[in-house]
Design brief:
The complex is a heterodimer of chains A (552) and B (297). Chain A is of the alpha+beta class. Chain A is built from 20 helices and 15 strands. Chain A is extended, with a radius of gyration of 35 Å. Chain B has 297 residues and is mainly α. Chain B is built from 13 helices and no strands. Chain B is globular. The chains are: A alpha+beta (552), B mainly alpha (297). The interface between A and B is large, with 107 and 104 residues.
């Protein structure tokens, strides 16, 4: 019987939904509305065709196809009659898909790869990079004087004069079109007093500013000396003035997937599980490629001894920081709200305006301002407020203990106005009769607060307290701008955690630290774990507070 | 005469004692908190008016000197005005677009009934729990891939950053807006429909008008949030002339012994003033928006 009634209820619900949907259909579209719609659609189509043509030129066929299909679907959705929901949802859904859903899944995917500065791309590009980087000079080969010139097609070529034989050559990076060949006075070579070539007919010298602009790339130019660059070697110039003959030291065998180092004959074999070329003696070539590594990153987080030490400390401090912040801001904010929730106090508006100043002041500026005030030698707190003499300065941001207190103090300053505002709102929504009847029953003010007001407040404020916890658990801006995660935690050292580093700032260091290799895979694995921690804590506390609410 | 004064005196003292016990101490505490709340701001204003350049400012308002403000806008090494313009541009475009798209989606969730509506709402809540900064590696990856094919919206471009901000703010924005739209009675829509209005007319001319204050507050909050972001902006931009205020002002005081501290203070005061003023004027709406989600009834 109950089954029947739920079926009926469902049927009734469906009928009602249909009626609601019908309500919004129909009506006569105005001419103005139609024109605006067509103009907007035309703009979207034009933009998408433009992007598609760019992708077409780069031969990104999948991208072109996807874009055209999406554009067609959009046109169909907006030109047909009816079908209201997608008309309102499509713009938002598209953005969410690309810039949020995709990011979540892509992070999940990276967490299972070794993506990082040493594993930056495909195997093919790694092979290429290794070949290009392993270059050795050919012994006994001549050295050249180099003039950088540009031919009629604008490509840079080398005008090279052999210092010994004083023969002059010209050649470009592409042997087929610009072979390395000898040129003589008959070709229009002009020479200086030392018989070094200074120019060639049909070519112009690069100006100094052009050379300066291309400074970095000039040392990478390789001019092949023959049709096979591997056998014949190539000309390279470290400074744009002299050139030497070089050859590749690492030779790749695509069939065996091995690199052979010519100088000592060591063979490096591709290891597809690690994304590196590895020699039998364990030596690795520096550049690797991106491969799936399964649960390796997660295994490292839980098992790696190098990581475990700093990680436990960071995790403990992250929880201390997030919980400490929520508690301190809530206690101060609630106390203030109770204090000022009193008609007899005059000037409440002024107090209130001053007290929400920290909330109105942009948070990133606050972090910088406090950083300056906490400066040990000349910050305002040591010199202006505490008037400490030079021997007894408090090292606010340079020792772990004071730094942690400083972080909590700043976050209390940032956060208590919000708690004050929401507590005031919640207090005012508690019916006055409740406290009156409690007072009549002889309850003290403390009992009235603890037994009546606080439980009611917690019911309505719990979701906001949880969000505050989740927000502070990942409060990157404050920590990074105030202490940079320090003291300690040198970003140039691998996996070195500072005294106030929370998880998210530590992840940032792993992913974007300057001088050590970035490890995006590990950083993403951390991100996923943080998401799981915060998400599950929020989920369970939300459920508990829901239970609380039902009881109340 | 003396008797009278002494009577007056004791009376006043007694009433002061009683007043202090009941109300006065609250003023003392409130004063203490107010000082804590305001002194960093007083300090930064005072520092911006020194002419020493460094961080050393032991006495408040020992000097009044506006040279920092003048240097700030004229020094080509720190293009403050450009940073301010970048921030305003990025934050306003993000605020307007995100409010517009959130409103569109919220209208569908609030007024229309369709398959997957509940699932959609649920996934919105879930997705917004993944803070976009956790995806920073992925964001970096997507933007650097984009710069290979569409340099206009890739790494180092304002539009690239705007797109990332939009993606991050849509989930939460839509959900909030959905709650507000539900407070607008459906009978108004029905009446308009009977008069022959189309769904777009109901949306643009009725619902949006009714929730305009909320749209404004959401746009303002989004503006402040975007303008305050450091992490994503610091990943996306690498050149000084692209920086937003959050990144640019940071470069002024990277070095703890920096002589730019007073100039930074001037920049901070200039940047914060309009935001604080806006916040204070819209205070009532903002607070009701904050509390509305929490307190029922």
């Amino acid at each position: 019987m109950s089954e029947l009634s739920t079926k009926e209820a469902k049927k009734a619900l469906r009928l009602r939904n249909k009626q609601i949907s019908k309500l919004y259909d129909g009506g006569v579209p105005s001419l103005r509305g139609t024109i605006i719609k067509i103009i907007l659609l035309a703009l979207v189509d034009a933009a998408s065709l433009f992007v598609a043509s760019l992708l077409f030129l780069k031969e990104q066929w999948l991208g072109v196809a996807l874009l055209l299909v999406v554009t067609l679907v959009i046109n169909w959705l907006y030109l047909r009659r009816g079908g209201l929901p997608p008309k309102y949802l499509t713009p938002g859904v598209l953005f969410l898909l690309v810039f949020q859903v995709y990011i979540v899944f892509y992070s999940g995917f990276i967490a299972f790869t070794n993506y990082g500065s040493l594993h930056n791309g495909s195997m093919a590009s790694a092979v290429d990079a290794i070949e290009q980087s392993a270059v050795v000079p050919v012994e006994g080969a001549p050295t050249y004087d180099i003039k950088l010139v540009k031919g009629a097609d604008g490509k840079i070529e080398f005008l090279a004069t052999d210092f010994d034989s004083l023969k002059t050559y010209i050649g470009g990076t592409d042997y087929k079109d610009h072979p390395f060949r000898e040129v003589t006075a008959a070709d229009g070579v002009s020479v200086d007093g030392d018989k070094l070539a200074t120019g060639l007919k049909g070519y112009t010298r690069l100006t100094d500013s052009e050379i300066a602009a291309a400074a970095g790339s000039i040392s990478n130019i390789k001019i092949p000396l023959g049709p096979d660059i591997h056998k014949d070697g190539f000309l390279k110039t470290p400074d744009g003035l002299t050139g030497e003959v070089n050859k590749f030291d690492a030779v790749y065998d695509p069939k065996a997937e091995t690199f052979t180092r010519l100088s000592d004959g060591v063979v490096f074999k591709a290891d597809q599980s690690k994304g590196f070329f590895i020699a039998p003696n364990g030596e690795q070539l520096e550049i690797g490629w991106q491969v799936m590594v399964g649960w390796d990153n997660f295994a490292r987080i839980f098992g790696d001894k190098e990581l475990r030490g700093p990680l436990l400390g960071i995790l403990a401090w992250t929880f201390m920081f997030a919980i400490g912040t929520v508690l301190s801001t809530f206690v101060v904010g609630l106390a203030l709200a109770l204090l000022l929730n009193d008609e007899r106090i005059r000037g409440k508006k002024v107090y209130r305006a001053i007290m929400i100043l920290p909330y109105a002041f942009p948070a990133f500026l606050s972090a910088y301002v406090w950083k300056g005030m906490f400066n040990t030698e000349s910050g305002f707190i040591n010199t202006g407020i505490l008037h400490l003499d030079q021997q007894h300065l408090i090292p606010w941001l340079t020792e772990v203990g004071p730094a942690r207190w400083a972080v909590l103090l700043v976050n209390l300053w940032l956060g208590f106005p919000y708690m004050f505002l929401i507590s005031t709102g919640a207090l005012q929504s508690i019916p006055a009769e409740l406290s009156e009847s409690a007072t009549l029953d002889g309850a003290t003010a403390w009992q009235e607060f603890r037994l009546i007001k606080l439980p009611l407040l917690l019911v309505s404020l719990a979701p906001l307290l949880i969000s505050s916890f989740a927000y502070n658990f990942n409060n990157f801006t404050l920590i990074y701008l105030l202490t940079g995660g320090g003291p300690g935690g040198d970003p140039t050292l691998r996996l070195d955690a500072g005294g106030t580093d929370i998880l998210i700032t530590f992840v940032y260091k792993i992913a974007f630290s300057g001088s050590v290799g970035a490890d995006y895979g590990l950083a993403s694995a951390f991100s996923i774990l943080i998401f799981l921690i915060v998400g599950s804590i929020s989920f369970f506390t939300f459920r508990r507070t829901r239970a609380l609410e039902d009881m109340a | 005469m003396t008797e009278l004064t002494s009577v007056l005196h004791t009376k006043k003292r007694r009433s002061f004692g009683a007043w202090f016990k009941q109300v006065g101490w609250k003023h003392v505490v409130a004063w203490a908190v107010a000082v804590y709340a305001i002194f960093p701001i007083v300090y930064i204003v005072s520092t911006s008016l020194t002419n020493m350049g460094g961080i050393e400012n032991g006495t408040l308002f020992g000097q009044i000197d506006f040279s920092n403000y003048a240097n700030l806008v004229s020094d080509p090494e720190h293009p403050y005005l450009l940073w301010a313009w970048n921030t305003i541009f990025i934050a306003s475009v993000t605020a307007v677009l995100s409010v517009m798209m959130s409103a569109l989606a919220a209208y569908a969730f609030s007024r229309l009934r369709f398959k997957g509506r509940r699932m959609g709402l649920l996934s919105l809540i879930l997705i917004q729990m993944f803070p976009s900064m956790l995806g920073l590696v992925a964001i970096f990856g997507i933007l650097s891939a984009l710069s290979d094919y569409l340099p206009g919206i890739g790494l180092g471009t304002q539009w690239g950053l705007i797109l990332v901000y939009l993606g991050g703010s849509l989930g939460g924005g839509t959900y909030l807006m959905y709650g507000f739209f539900n407070t607008v009675p459906k009978e108004i829509d029905e009446a308009a429909k009977i008069d022959g209005a189309t769904h777009t007319q109901v949306f643009f001319t009725i619902i949006l008008r009714l929730v305009t204050p909320i749209l404004a507050v959401m746009a303002l909050l989004s503006f402040i949030g975007t303008a305050s972001d450091y992490l994503l902006a610091s990943i996306v931009f690498s050149k000084s002339e692209q920086f937003t205020l959050a990144v640019g002002l940071g470069t002024l005081i990277d070095d703890p012994h920096s002589k730019n501290w007073a100039m930074f203070s001037a920049g901070a005061v200039l940047a914060a003033t309009p935001i604080v003023i806006l916040f204070m004027t819209l205070q009532r709406y903002i607070v009701s928006g904050l509390v509305g989600g929490a307190v029922k009834g």
